[in-house]
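Hi L., both proteins are below.
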Amino acid sequence: MTVRDPELLLELRDEPELLAVADALSDILNARDVAPRKRTRTWLAAAVAGAVAIGAIAGALLLAGNRVEPRLVDRALAAVGDAPVLHVVTRQQYPSETTLIELSTGRRIVEQRVSRTEIWFDKERSLEHTITHTTGQATQNLLLTPEGVTSESGPVWTCARIAAHPLEATKAGVSCNLSGDNGTTPRHVPEPPPALDPALAGFVDGYREALASGAARKIGEGTVEGQHVYWLEFRLPDRYRAPDEPPADLREQVAVSTATYRPLVVRMITNGSRGDYDVLEIGTVTRAEADFSEPKLVPPEHPTSTSVRVTGQLDSAEAAQALGTRPLWLGPEFQGLKLAAVQKQEVTTGYGRDSGVPPRVTTVISLIYGEVRRRHPTEGSLVITESTTPIAIWGTLPTSVPDGYLGINGLRIGHLRVGEVNVELRRNSIGSGVDPALVAAAQTLRAVPAG
């Protein structure tokens, strides 16, 4: 070896063939300095050859430098595999919509919710199976096929299914027409191909294609959970843009481990806002290994409708009889609001006509602090609804709230349990965040005095 330049040696440390060329060129150039004058023509030819060699080495070095990205993309593509079904498991953490408030101290806790999503995606056969587990919620199970969509609640009404079963769709109260008219003659409308959750669409559907086409580009390096990563980025098509709207800035950024070349984090960027997913698993599997089984039917837990009917006015004794236990109250007056009415109500909870679950009717009592007009609370009134079974008057099931805590959801409705009584607190007012009046009311609740 005659190459002495340490920078060149460093650049060519992984390219033995280029190092050999550089070595030979060095010998040629050194020979020029000691050659006799009479060999000018030979020297000139060698110099020309040397210049060509220098250009070749410079070009080779440039290609070697640019080859980092294709090499990265090739390895990332190989890490995913080339079997027909893409299998992805992701995890996302985000703040819960419910704020827990410790009644003894007023301390607020916003718990983290975790969603784990597992997807099998067979683009060629238009099959997609998604199973999502979220803390505090029932499992969601969705299978999309060319024949239709099925969930844990049974067949899903799509426009194709409505067209094929117009009479049943009309009976179920669903339609794809603004007029609501489904007609009476069955028609065949093909199901659209599976469309993934927009936050995952570019990654699951486009990651391999972006790698294979070269659309993915390296934008930097970093560290994710202690692992060194390359960051790849590729743009997503704006499929939902109206003709008169400007294109949205839709991008996917993927953190790829430099050790395994597997993606660790997917970052969805939409017009500057971002959402991250952890990638727990990704790879391709055979069709025999994939899970495209039909979801098992599960009795519905979440209501699709609620209606409330006032059935009478009560005194304290009648309220206890209707509730089955001693009711709770805030005294005759609370924060300047007088107890205006104690009502007996019937709450009818529906689960959808196709669910097979009949509507449930629950008797509750409602204490209204403020003012009542035509048996309804006016704006600013505080309403306390009580029952011995959990209810969802406003279409939202109460989350599991620990004893001694008040849970306030995104609709500013509070839930808590006092003994055997389930309590819902709400204000007829517009606002955002936690209403201090609900916290104070939860801390003040006590049993109505006997008699």
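That was the first. Here is the second:
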Amino acid sequence: MISPMDPDPGHPPTEDPFALDRAALSLSCLPFRRSFFEEVKDRAISSSELCQRQDWPSVVFAPFGVDRAEAHFNWLIRLGVLRREVDGQGLTERVRLTPLGRQVLERWPGEIPRASLRERMLENFRRHRPRF
């Protein structure tokens, strides 16, 4: 079910280049492949569902547990790339791609380019120590 808070399909794209650049950097630093984001464009997925998949190499670069997947989901939610799906009882554990996430994916025609080790380390530091 789509959240009633979702903008309509005609909603103008974000005009904040900083938000787009920050989200693009994060996507290149996280272990998700483009196919993961393409999948959450069309249907919601939970962290437990993601971690139980037998075809994990097609959606992530390396396997990880449910807690780590939730941490990644929460970061992408904070950036505005993902959102929690809403059902009749409120928020669920499942996530979907936001309009901002769609805009970020449009930057790359193919696989999301991987960030360098230095970029991943800096992004991890910014993510876990945002005030420094």
